[in-house]
Design a protein that fits this description.
The protein has 261 residues and is of the alpha/beta class. The protein has helices at residues 3-10, 32-42, 69-73, 77-83, 113-123, 149-156, 181-191, 206-220, 232-240, 245-252, and strands at residues 24-27, 49-52, 64-67, 87-91, 127-131, 162-166, 226-230. It has a single domain (20-250), classed as NAD(P)-binding Rossmann-like Domain (Rossmann fold), CATH 3.40.50. The radius of gyration is 18 Å and the shape is globular.
């Protein structure tokens, strides 16, 4: 079954969500992680879900609409009204992870992130989640060394109420060029010891990570504005927490003492 089919199927079993989550936008819905994020977003009870497309989708589900490049770049007043207050997810994955049936979705490039973020803000989005895979082999090459500080500062200055950056795992292969050989040797040696790392600290697969990201979006609706980082270790602990992901995420968001809602 294709990622798109999985995404559409996920909408048939919506999970409990806070009242009026508003609209949501997913950019990069065609890859493994992107399809998983779209599936979770569709199941979260949003009033309207949009996916960035370059051509018409072969099949759609009620509540899922395609968003073209022209709508993203030069939205009309009606389009701004439709997406006002939206939560936007930009999923960045290595090219080549998209099946033929999912080629309707545009795969964002890392270099496009500042422009896309500005366009999303102009369209009416008020929250931005930048999502990357945990596994190093599915990361875009430009993100092997993480987000640049300048990129993070640029996103923070666009006027979103909340910005969340999902961090990936890093290993010897992702060390910057020119890293001393001794440091590379040490990183490679530690990589061989991953079998002793508890399950709750290991990188998450796409579906598990998508669940945590959308749960974080749900939790953060009760949190104050700000820029936050969701590191791999915390996301993994949330996914494996006996008390549920939201308990861990509420503590991360500074809401541990509040009643859940």
């Amino acid at each position: 079954m294709s990622p798109l089919s999985d995404a559409l199927r996920g909408a048939l079993h919506p999970t409990a969500a806070a009242p009026s989550p508003g609209p949501a936008l997913v950019l990069g819905a065609g890859g493994w992680l992107g399809a998983a994020v779209l599936s979770q977003v569709l199941a979260a009870g949003h009033s309207r879900v949009g996916a960035w497309v370059q051509r018409a989708m072969a099949s759609t589900h009620r509540g899922l609409v395609g968003v073209s490049q022209s709508e993203l770049a030069t939205p009309s007043d009606a389009q701004r009204e439709a997406w006002a207050g939206a939560t936007a997810y930009v999923v960045l994955e290595r090219p080549g992870l998209v099946g033929a049936r999912d080629a309707a979705f545009v795969a964002p490039d890392v270099a496009q992130l500042p422009v896309l973020a500005r366009q999303l803000r102009a369209l009416g989005a008020k929250r931005l989640f930048v999502v990357v895979p945990h596994a190093a082999n599915t990361l875009p090459e430009a993100l092997r060394h993480g987000f640049a500080n300048a990129d993070e500062q640029a996103l923070a200055g666009l006027g979103f109420e909340q910005v969340v950056l999902v961090r990936s795992s890093r290993d010897a292969a992702s060390l910057p060029p020119g890293t001393p050989w001794l440091d590379r040797l040490a990183a490679a040696w530690w990589a061989q010891l991953r079998w002793i790392v508890p399950d709750a600290e290991r990188p998450l697969r796409s579906v598990a990570l998508a669940r945590v990201v959308v749960a974080a979006a749900r939790v953060l609706r009760q949190a104050p504005p700000g820029v936050r980082v969701l590191p791999q270790g915390l996301a993994s602990r949330a996914a494996h927490a006996p008390e549920g992901a939201e308990a861990v995420l509420r503590a991360w968001a500074g809401l541990a003492g509040d009643a859940g809602g």
